[in-house]
């Protein structure tokens, strides 16, 4: 495989390796195979029955153990994308294999924390720029391949973390693949990932576990208190049924950010407790109303309309980090990029074309792009105008 893979015209991936066929990896293999049966998906897992199950379900063309020659042969001869969907502890070994096999294609991952893998890829991979961190914000209380399903990522946010070294084509191809699964790409800076995910994912899991602990401590032998639990309690604590081993690993992988979030949460709960203890109705109402207003503002952002699309065209020099900069600005403005294309005008000039749904603050996006030195143009599109015709 040629070293300069960025010289190829942007296109989808034809041969994909999914390493780790647990809940996320198996669901990804299933979703890709369902979305585009022409893509060859190769699975890797340490558990032989899991490999056999993935093959029997038609989610992978073949699957094997990491030590099998079939794995190394596929990577060396065919793979253009490797997805690491393993626990953090297993990542280094696979990165070393990819290095030893001189793999020069694109690499991404599904890990919920990034500190370790960012350091490991920088140390191990000779072609570090070909690694684009990823994280699908999807899951289930069920674990392993038994909980996997091809629609797991539909409507879910999928984080990509491009940096200054990320080739534009890598981001474009991954964006195309992920959105073909009906997931939505959110771009954030790699060094911001763990702090952000601690607040919206890791802290909520610990809070859910704490709520169950609280109820369990007050339940009698007949569990009558648990039978009183209404839908709200069940909905807010569903994630507490997840794998304790998995979540213990996540907690320690992201210990600093998680601890900080939990300490901040202690302060918020303390504010409620103090206000109620002081019979301060005004303060209690204010705290509740702040949360209520913030929560009411969320659904519109989660369910964008595709009745009206907006094309943003950004002339740019083909310089280091430009796509990471633009996509991060778009995400910070709450704008969902439905598709992304790069039109190369000359060797060092291109036009970046983003098609946005109607969510987010377009005015903020425009202002931030202009402040960053970009010139931009906006053009309304209809869904029909945006249909790709082969």
Automatic annotation (TrEMBL):
GO molecular function: NAD+ binding; prephenate dehydrogenase (NAD+) activity; prephenate dehydrogenase (NADP+) activity
Pathway involvement of the protein, from the record: Amino-acid biosynthesis; L-tyrosine biosynthesis; (4-hydroxyphenyl)pyruvate from prephenate (NAD(+) route): step 1/1
Domain Prephenate/arogenate dehydrogenase span(s) in chain numbering: 14-306
PROSITE patterns noted in UniProt: ACT, PDH_ADH
Gene Ontology biological process terms, A to Z: tyrosine biosynthetic process
Enzyme Commission code: 1.3.1.12
Catalytic activity: prephenate + NAD(+) = 3-(4-hydroxyphenyl)pyruvate + CO2 + NADH
Superkingdom, natural source: Bacteria
Assigned keywords, A-Z: Amino-acid biosynthesis, Aromatic amino acid biosynthesis, NAD, Oxidoreductase, Tyrosine biosynthesis
Residues of the ACT domain: 311-384
Record bears the keyword NAD: yes
InterPro entries: 6-PGluconate_DH-like_C_sf (IPR008927), ACT-like_dom_sf (IPR045865), ACT_dom (IPR002912), NAD(P)-bd_dom_sf (IPR036291), PDH_C (IPR046825), PDH_N (IPR046826), Preph/Arog_dehydrog (IPR050812), Prephen_DH (IPR003099)
Family note: Belongs to the prephenate/arogenate dehydrogenase family.
The protein, known as: Prephenate dehydrogenase
Species of provenance: Ellagibacter isourolithinifaciens
